[in-house]
Amino acid sequence: MKAVRIATRQSPLALWQARHVASLLSQVHPGLECTLVEMTTAGDRFLSAPLSTVGGKGLFVKEIEQSLLDGRADLAVHSLKDMTSVLPAGLLLAAVPKREDPRDAFCSPAGLSLEMLPKGARVGTSSLRRSCILRSRRPDLEIISLRGNVQTRLARTREMGLHGAVLAFAGLKRLGLETEITEVLPTSVSLPAVGQGVLAIQCRTEDSGVRGLLAALEDDTTRIAVTAERAFMARLEGGCTVPLAGHATVEGGTVLLRGLVGRPDGTKVVEGERSGPVETALAVGEALAEELLSRGAAEILRDFGRAHPVPES
Ligand SMILES: NCc1[nH]cc(CCC(=O)O)c1CC(=O)O
């Protein structure tokens, strides 16, 4: 193959990620020509529209996936965090490059850390997971809905005079906005979303030419971690309607997965961890999901599942 068309959203972060993959591909396949096919998704339109009942994960990926199925593009770059656990027939998660820092970051215009926040402080996020985790630790905090791309959210945080906002470290770093971070939140404080910090490169299952090119970008450790995380999410489906966190690390042939399901207001959180040989990553994810379901997550899903169709971020 001499050329590939890469489908991407048009947000600054999505464009950075698509260009990054283009640059990785040209490094490992000198002479390969990469062009971007820029698209607007329902998720992008939704960001500027009033909150409606449209919703869920997949909002940012559906049109892009369709462009692959239609043959308008050869591969697509997504944030894995934005992808549903089931991919459309005919498409494949062909490669996951090495993960960027998966942690959440607190950005406070006043330079405050989470600990320093005064009682009743106003913190921006539109993620159910982040709201739940923040409220479970600090029930006094007022969570302010914050939508839009990374730069918009930072600007709104200042304009609205919020004490701070929680965003993904990976997105801030890719955009050169680390200087906005006042505190990187340890995973023990804010357990990341499934797939956070990971780029997902997707192509048609039957396209062996593109699959061959993408194989060089695959990172085995990242694949093991996301296999466990996504198996956990798949069993609990509704990662977009119920606060859900899942984060796996790999060390010396063992994968360790930590997971959390909670009520949106943080009044209940069910958490746990499981580990096993890396070959059993899928089973580790499923087993942790079963355990959390039996310890109270089933009730949370029953009470809140699909009732609050807000995209996770
Ligand atoms: N939901 C939007 C989104 N999807 C992926 C990232 C960050 C990059 C990543 O996790 O790889 C973000 C921004 C954020 O949550 O602050």
Structure at a glance:
With 313 residues, this protein is α/β, with parallel strands linked by helices. It has 9 helices and 13 strands. Strand 11 (244-251) and strand 12 (254-262) form a beta hairpin.
Describe it for me?
The longest helix is centred in the last third of the chain and has 24 residues. About 2% of the residues have low confidence. A five-stranded mixed β-sheet has the order 2-1-3-10-4, with helices on both faces. A five-stranded mixed β-sheet has the order 7-6-8-5-9, sandwiched between helices. With 313 residues, the chain is of the alpha/beta class. The chain folds into three domains: 119 residues, D-Maltodextrin-Binding Protein, domain 2, CATH 3.40.190.10; 82 residues, D-Maltodextrin-Binding Protein, domain 2, CATH 3.40.190.10; 95 residues, Porphobilinogen deaminase, C-terminal domain (Double Stranded RNA Binding Domain), CATH 3.30.160. It has nine helices and 13 strands. The protein binds ligand PBG.
Mean pLDDT: 92
Give the overall silhouette: globular
Kindly give the count of domains: 3
Give the strand line-up of the largest sheet. 2-1-3-10-4
The helix/strand class is alpha/beta
What is the beta-strand fraction?
A: 15-25%
What is the end-to-end distance? 35 Å
Helix/strand order, N-terminal first? EHEHHEEEEHEHEHEEHHEEEH
| CATH topology name of the largest domain | D-Maltodextrin-Binding Protein, domain 2
Q: Please give the number of β-strands.
A: 13
Helical run tally = 9
> Main β-sheet, in a few words?
5 strands, mixed
Q: Which homologous superfamily in CATH is the superfamily of the largest domain?
A: Periplasmic binding protein-like II
Q: Specify the CATH architecture of the largest domain.
A: 3-Layer(aba) Sandwich
Low-confidence stretches: 50-54
Which CATH class of the largest domain is shown?
Alpha Beta
Subunit structure: Monomer.
InterPro entries: HemC, Porphobilin_deaminase_cofac_BS, Porphobilin_deaminase_N, Porphobilinogen_deaminase_C, Porphobilinogen_deaminase_C_sf
Organism: Archangium gephyra
Keywords: Porphyrin biosynthesis, Transferase
